[in-house]
Amino acid sequence: MQCHRINELLELLKDEWMNSQNDSLMTFLGKMAEEAGHKGDLSTMSDDMLIYHLKMRSRDQDEMIPGIAKDCVDDFKSAILKARGIQ
């Protein structure tokens, strides 16, 4: 499980960091923490926060979170049928 998260984080970091090639890694991580609203030392920033921020950074602000979007149902009737396994 940890290996998957590390690989995901490295892939996300690589894509975003390439856009800020003049920044050192620590400067880039500091920018990410600031954008995410993290207060305090970088060492207290969780990897989940960094992964989430990197995923959502380039998306439209009104766009739904990918993990939630896959479970979203447009209307109540469809949601009830899906929950009961009928759909």
Tag the structure with descriptive keywords.
Conserved Hypothetical Protein Ylqf, Chain: A, domain 2; mainly alpha; 87 residues
- By CATH, the architecture of the domain at 2-60 is named Orthogonal Bundle
State the shape: elongated
Residues in helices, as a percent range: 55-70%
CATH superfamily of the domain at 2-60: Protein of unknown function DUF1040
Cα separation of the termini: 32 Å
Q: Summarize the main sheet.
A: none
Average pLDDT figure: 84
Low-confidence runs (pLDDT<50, min 5 residues)?
Answer: none
According to CATH, what is the class of the domain at 2-60? Mainly Alpha
* N-to-C SSE string, H for helix and E for strand: HHHHH
Radius of gyration: 17 Å
Number of helices: 5
How many strands in all? 0
CATH-assigned fold name of the domain at 2-60: Conserved Hypothetical Protein Ylqf, Chain: A, domain 2
Relative strand content:
under 5%
Class computed from helices, strands and strand pairing: mainly alpha
3D architecture notes:
The radius of gyration is 17 Å and the shape is elongated. The protein is mainly α. The chain is built from 5 helices and no strands. The protein has helices at residues 2-17, 25-36, 47-56, 66-69, 76-83. α2 crosses α3. The model has no long low-confidence stretch (mean pLDDT 84). It starts with a helix and ends with a helix. Pfam families: DUF1040 (PF06288). It comes from Endozoicomonas montiporae. InterPro entries: DUF1040 (IPR009383), YihD_sf (IPR038134). This is Protein yihD.
